[in-house]
Model the fold of this input.
Amino acid sequence: MRAAKGGAHEQGGKHISGGEQISTFDGITHAVNFLLEKGLTHSKGSPDFMQIQFDCIHDPVQLLNPLGVQSHQVESVEKGQALARQLLKQAGVPEKCIEALYHHLPGYSGLGGAVLFDIHSGRPIDERGIRVSRMDWQADNYEKWAAYYGKPRNSRMKEALVLATKVTGHPAAVAELCWSDDPDYITGYVASKRLGYRRISKLKKYGDERGCRIFFVNGREDIESYIHYLKKQPIFVRWEEVK
Done:
């Protein structure tokens, strides 16, 4: 599902909401209704364009364990951003690359997807906005995970962790930096295979509609394979309780 105001995204419409689910055939009605409600009730406003489509998945679904989750409470956006930079360095992103990214960052806020940033050159590989697709976490398994770790059971947490788990699950991935374009939601995260999902309480100010989604990649890996994986490889996140 994608929803916009002022026409379709490709006609210059303002992005309002997006989302997806992997469903059985019998569950399509429920999935469509969920996505319809999500698109119509977003804090960024009411859309005048919405597109909901479904595709049959023929490829085998890959199972991934959810990233480990840690939360960081910070006093200000400035401290949150400083922590994000520190975590990116710990994840393996060179400091020069981080500085280059923040120099380019204002130009990326209106994109409908993620920018791939090469850690070696410190330059974007693809600025068109890559949309990650074909990913989900079955509700009952997510509920068990959330109850076990005492985490929020809301869809926002689930969707963010599913996306971060998929994004970092490929050999070309180094780290992800993200915060929402929702003006009422100021929490963001840094994610990597090394660090897990590191939630930071303040990465922007209330009322700011500028979002961020950057995938730091090892440009010496097969980037076309990574892009195909992000767009086409179906994955389910599945948690198994440690006994």
Observations:
- The chain has two domains: 2-51, 62-237.
- The chain has six helices and 13 strands.
- The first helix runs from residue 28 to 40.
- The CA atoms of residues 66 and 161 lie 7 Å apart.
